[in-house]
Amino acid sequence: MTAFPDIIPAIRAAAPALRGRLIANQLLSDLTWFRVGGPAQVLFTPADEEDLAHLLDVLDPDLPVTVIGLGSNLIVRDGGIPGVTIRLGGKAFGSVEIDGETLRAGTAVPDMRLAKTAAEASLDGLAFLRGIPGSIGGALRMNAGAHGGETTDVLVEARGIDRSGTLRVFTHAKMGFTYRHSEAPEDVIFTSALFRGRPGDRREIEAEMDRVTAAREAAQPIRERTGGSTFKNPPGGKAWQLVDAAGCRGLTLGGAQVSEMHCNFLINRADASASDIEALGEEVRRRVRETSGVELHWEIRRIGVPASTGG
């Protein structure tokens, strides 16, 4: 593995009051569901929102900053990620507070946990989150949805810190949600969000969540080393149907494979590299374009640099 230069001493000198954890050249394959990817030049886990703002305020504006969540919908390229990679965690970003029909969740909270917490409080409308294997931060960034529900249906507001270290609050309207997309500025790191449910029957909500779980387990390769849905559904169509029609079900490249179970999922079946998985996805896109004329767009985030330029 090629290592990046250690810039932590310079960061500590610029931010002596920093309380969060800094790690040099942390291998990110351990933090992604695909189990691939090179190192983060610096991995930073802030102590709380103020700690995050402090770091962003003093960092060189030219130093790249990247945010990762649970790693479920992510390909980290083999050369790793230069600059500072931020991963939120702990109580400061991992708690849920309920006030009447609203829930405030830190962005490190898994979507599934928010759904469960809402159900326990007899709040309906968030059960769809049970079918999304990511965190609240990712849900805000891409308007995550499943089983007939989307983040936009339940969000009241979101808050985060921008690249200058300034706290920003976004109303629902300012999020600019569309299908699997938000218009919120790319430099904002979301820290928490306020959601609104509606009164419901706990048993009925939990039964709906059980149906979502069963449907997901029956249709998706969730026990494999995989990510979420690989490609966005094109207008009026289904990505998996186009992939299937292009003859890509079960297609392999290196250690990567298009899932036989659900062909809008890629899997790491035999020690694949990130390059294998991304190249397979591009080959699928090429074949779909040739057979149907439809341009599929990635839903999975691909970040970092190739191995040849990693350090």
Automatic annotation (TrEMBL):
Instruction: Tell me which EC number(s) this protein carries.
Output: 1.3.1.98
**Species of provenance:** Methylobacterium marchantiae
Q: What is this protein called?
A: UDP-N-acetylenolpyruvoylglucosamine reductase
The cofactors required by this protein are: FAD
Q: Which residues form the active site?
A: 180, 229 (proton donor), 299
Q: In which pathway does it act?
A: Cell wall biogenesis; peptidoglycan biosynthesis
Organism domain of life: Bacteria
Recorded hits in Pfam families, A to Z, give: FAD_binding_4 (PF01565), MurB_C (PF02873)
Which reaction equations make up its catalytic activity? UDP-N-acetyl-alpha-D-muramate + NADP(+) = UDP-N-acetyl-3-O-(1-carboxyvinyl)-alpha-D-glucosamine + NADPH + H(+)
- Keywords, alphabetical: Cell cycle, Cell division, Cell shape, Cell wall biogenesis/degradation, Cytoplasm, FAD, Flavoprotein, NADP, Oxidoreductase, Peptidoglycan synthesis
